[in-house]
Amino acid sequence: MRVFVTGASGWIGSAVTDELLAHDHEVVGLARTAEAAAALEAKGATAHRGSLDDVDSLAAGAVAADAVVHLAFKHDFTDYAGAGRSEHSAVRRMLDAVEGSGKPFLLASGVASDIADRPLTEDDPSPHHGADSPRGGSENLALSYADRGVRPVALRFAASVHGAGDPGFVSVLAKVAKHRGAVGYLGDGSNRWPAVHRSDAARLVRLALDRAPAGSRVHAVAEEGLPTRDIAAAIGDYLGLDTVSVPREDAEAHFGWIGHFAGMDITASSARTRDLLGWTPTGPTLLADIAAGAYRLPQ
User: Fold this and answer.
1) Phi and psi dihedrals of 231, rounded to 5?
2) Would the pTM of this model clear 0.70, i.e. be above it?
3) Are 217 and 154 in contact (CB under 8 A)?
4) Which residues fall in a coiled-coil region (predicted)?
5) What is the per-residue pLDDT for 115?
6) HEC profile for the chain?
7) pLDDT tens-digit profile of 12-22?
8) CA distances (Å), origin 58, targets 84, 151, 188
9) Do the strands 223-227 and 192-197 form a parallel or antiparallel pair, or are they unpaired?
10) Are 275 and 201 in contact, with CB atoms under 8 Å apart?
11) End-to-end CA distance of the chain
12) Cα separation of 25 and 147, whole Å?
């Protein structure tokens, strides 16, 4: 299958590209820079030059492929609303281009929710609609094309997709800790983040491409929710730093932009995904990755 992958040189996308190539798929990866194009071609993928702002290039890549895996996103937290609007425009343009084709259209989403009394499940719809909502409401936008001749699947990734080289939330926490001289968590640290190893997330994407029906939501979640104080303690043990409780009103001052996320309490189940796709996570846990040095910092 010829698969157009946006974000193909990113943290999750590069692992997905490797997984698809290893299982005899042809990968055409969106490349914004010459360096990204060279890295893709060195793996045996084909580079498609363009960006999320070049929606016509995105549409051309989608039309020329048998399937689309949309993983790119502008992780610009100084203009998160603008990033959402860009995402909405990019997704709509690609969907309109492949409408009526029956092609799979998988897109990255997340498991963040305001459900407090139980883990989020695959049956729970996203509350976000429209270009001005988080991530541009792209999950609901994509799923709305299930009756328009597209096979959309929402790939809901855990808050931490971890592994050696992870540039995400846990890496930022470790960098803040080194700067502050202690590892912080908000309040009593009982709020939780779900996690999945990068290799397991990539395998889930491949399985969803092959098996997930139109309109599916699948959860790339191996651990339903780890207390942030346990994550902080693991970082502290590895870096040789104490852990400290940070008052919630000081979140942004202590953590910077990640302070908005540091206090979120998120749990999510992947039971239905495991049954649907035959997916069983086998990678290391987040705490094992931290202990093994996945978040080692430069001296």
Assistant:
1) -65, -45
2) yes
3) yes
4) none
5) 72
6) CEEEEECCCCHHHHHHHHHHHHCCCEEEEEECCHHHHHHHHHHCCEEEECCCCCHHHHHHHHHCCCEEEECCCCCCCCCHHHHHHHHHHHHHHHHHHHCCCCCEEEEEEECCCCCCCCCECCCCCCCCCCCCCHHHHHHHHHHHHHHCCCEEEEEEECCEEECCCCCCHHHHHHHHHHHHCCEEEECCCCCEEEEEEHHHHHHHHHHHHHHCCCCEEEEECCEEEEEHHHHHHHHHHHHCCCEEEECHHHHHHHHHHHHHHHCCCCCECCHHHHHHHCCCCCCCCHHHHHHCCCCCCCC
7) 999 999 999 99
8) 17, 18, 45
9) antiparallel
10) no
11) 45
12) 26
Place of tokens 């979140």: 251
Burial category of 129 from C-beta neighbours within 10 Å (exposed 0-12, middle 13-18, buried 19 and up) = middle
CATH 3.10.410.10 describes domain 2-159+196-223? no
Cα atoms in the Cβ-side hemisphere of radius 13 Å centred on 207: 19
Distance between CA atoms of residues 264 and 253, nearest Å: 16
CA 241 to chain centre: 29
Cα 128 to Cα 110: distance, rounded to the nearest angstrom = 11
Bin 35: left if φ > 0, else alpha if -120 < ψ < 50, else beta: alpha
Q: What tokens were used for 161?
A: 């997709």
Contact 172, 258 (CB under 8 A): yes
Query: What is the per-residue burial (b if ≥16 Cβ within 10 Å, else e) of 105-121?
Result: bbbbbbbbbebeeebbb
Q: Take residue 194 and report the two structure tokens written for it.
A: 């779900």
Radius of gyration for the alpha carbons in the chain, expressed in angstroms and rounded:
19
Per residue in 126-151, pLDDT (tens digit) is: 999 999 999 999 999 999 999 999 99
